[in-house]
Amino acid sequence: VFDPSTGQRTWTTIAVTEPLPSGTKNHPHPGIVLSPDGRFVYLNSGSRTDHGEAAPAGGYPEGT
After folding, report:
1. By the 8 A CB rule, do 32 and 45 touch?
2. pLDDT of residue 5
3. Is 1 helix (H, G, I), strand (E, B) or coil?
4. Which residues contact 30 (CB under 8 A, 6 or more apart)?
5. Where is the composition biased (Low complexity) (predicted)?
């Protein structure tokens, strides 16, 4: 929460996850950011985040 009168931000935990044992293909959360107005949190999570694998768009519309 941002207090505009003091310019201070109070951080609050919005989510907690249980630790998972490491595997051969881990998928961490490589990006967590606040929106410019501070109202939203954006979290990026997905496959191929642990080793930079490039893959064709199999199953997705042409050009994606």
Report:
1. no
2. 93
3. coil
4. 44, 45, 49
5. 54-64
The answer to whether 12 touches 1, Cβ cutoff 8 Å, is yes
**Dist CA 3 CA 11 (whole Å):** 11
Going by C-beta distance under 8 Å and a sequence separation of 6 or more, which residues neighbour residue 8?
2
**Burial group, residue 3, by CB count within 10 angstroms (0-12, 13-18, 19+):** exposed
- Residue 9 is classified by DSSP as E
pLDDT tens per residue across all 64 residues of the chain: 778 899 898 888 887 877 766 666 666 666 788 889 888 888 777 665 555 566 665 555 555 5
What's 39's DSSP letter?
A: S
* CB 43 within 8 Å of CB 35: no
